[in-house]
Write a structure and sequence with these properties.
Alpha-Beta Plaits; homodecamer; 2 helices; alpha+beta; 4-stranded antiparallel β-sheet
């Protein structure tokens, strides 16, 4: 089941830079992990912004929520979730 | 080069139903054609709405514009275009 | 799997009143049918508006989309879909 | 009398983490208490966000206000309140 | 129980002027009737707009909905409903 | 001359709690004082929010401005002011 | 008493062009009349838009409402009204 | 050449009160100076808000920019600039 | 003097297609004419939309207004005008 | 390939003034450098705001992203990116 997820990161000004750098590194590892599980098939950077466009492939809303809230940067994100399904004119997918 | 394109269709009330049905059928054929050319790798339906989430893979803004304006339903669409590029944490793409 | 679905109806001014009345009656029957299937556990009227707050319980985004687009009033609706999951402080559900 | 209440929590950056954790625990107990009183029949988590969708069943606006402002997290919330009533096509409720 | 209700009228361009004039006259009578019942204690015109600010005093959301939808101009209105309760600094009310 | 005034309070996180409590107490006294002068005939609490709906009865814009800016909580408020006048269907007022 | 009034005209597509031209001419005469009364001291065109920025000088909200609703183009306008008063740093006015 | 300029001041919470008071005093002097030069013919206070409505009369965009950015409060302002020109129905100006 | 002007065209559904085609052709000729006068140095198409991004170089707001309102498509456009001036980091211009 | 890029700077209140001044100076040098490379053909200041209107000429979304994120002020900016292409009525470009 596919979801379009758009995440905008608002870097926290109350954290020390190296603390935030550490969190970002953890974020990268966690993101790679979820992608390897096949749950996060698409992850693109929005040109000119500290935000991404993602597509998640999960079995339930709960699973999607657990994955997103497990991201170290989650507390600093504005997240929008758009459920998607097959388009009648789609060639494949 | 990737673009997130979101298209919302506002069915025209001033057209006869069969005329609009004809345009929709042309739209489907044109969409399949562009997908076969590899220019439109992803096309999903937004759950509960007459709109789609698409990803286009083109060589220039001009090419994207020409493809979008070639769609028979283009005059009845609200279109948003978001340029994207590689995300540093993306596993592949 | 639960979704909050909010539907606002914009009555079409280009349809004859009795034609729209017929569609509304079909809508009521279809809504009752889906509720009997257990897919639409909650349907409330928003006070002072021609819109509703609903909760759907479905197995996939696709199923939700098919149910919503099967509603006779769908072409005259603005629909927002919010995926939900269990709240850690919820007593039951 | 039913109200749709949507609460978005903006975690305070000026509070110490353990202080905020304490408040969150109090919040959970208070939420369970109100639910046991039958005043808060539905509480769901919005997928991907630190916010909830709730339905309150109260006898007056005043009662709803007193319940909401009694929540320990109230000072850190954006709350929207939508009065609801019976929908003519609702099977039960 | 008090509600702030704000109503903006969008005059229908598809109705004949005298037909709309007739509806407006019915609206006035119905509004006076509800006010005489004590359910609509305040009705003010917003300066410079075809809209009003009202306060309704009702026993339930359902009653408010029935009153509002009974207004002949209801189909041509954008309505916002804000539940209110006693303010701790209010002298009376 | 009547004005609808809606005030949303954003509690300042940079003030000590007892300092803000002191200001709130001053606010209450000032609000009662203005109401006794007959300038602030209606003051209601918006259910579920730290904001109010008020009606002021003043002789000029200047008087309204002076009254509002005299409120101790004014620096922490988002204020919207809507001029109103007699509605042709109003029973009294 | 001063009010900033911003008027955006949405030309009606359901009226014959010469009918709308007649209304526009009436509008011009009425506008000149109000200005001669000293009630409409400033009237400017917004560059690039079919809208104006005006300042009205009236004795009450009611007077402003009567003046605005007397404008032949009023039914085709979006109007915003902002009450103003003396600025402490204003040299004159 | 006329511009409608609307300035909303967001008092900085990170500055000491007397420091901000000093800046406000400088602002007043600078505003009076620009008005004396005839560049700032109108300056009104928006009722109930810490913001103003102004009309500037300048020879170029650059001149307007230089004047606005010379205001001591500029760093704490949200500014909107609307170019204006003569209205065909304006009596004078 | 430079202005960023963004024009979105909303094709009129109440005009016959060939009538609108005629207006579009007139629009093209007028646009070329203004560009040859050096008043419209930049005109770009927004990818995926029936709208443009333009830069006008004029001597006054009035001149800009006269140029824009002289465009045959003006009645069917949403126009936004942003005055611009030299940027301190600009290499040339 | 052209992009309209609009950058609004929100000066950070948590940085020391001289630290921010240093970053601004680095920003200027970097901006001049990119302009000399021909990648940033237009850079204008928006009148009355700490923001700019720019046109970038790049070969890909990736290149645009790398250029923008290389700007020292990038962390303090709200950036909007609009892909553009040739307009059918453009004289040159």
């Amino acid at each position: 089941m596919l979801f379009l997820v758009q995440m905008k990161v608002n870097p926290p000004t109350h954290l020390a830079p190296d603390e935030f750098a550490r969190i970002k590194e953890e974020e990268k590892q966690r993101a790679l992990e979820i992608q390897r599980q096949g749950k996060w098939p698409h992850l693109w950077r929005v040109t000119g912004k500290y935000s991404n466009v993602s597509v998640f492939d999960v079995d339930s809303n709960q699973e999607l929520h657990d994955l997103l809230t497990s991201l170290p940067l989650f507390p600093f994100m504005e997240v929008s979730v758009t459920p998607m399904n097959t388009h009648p004119s789609a060639l494949s997918e």
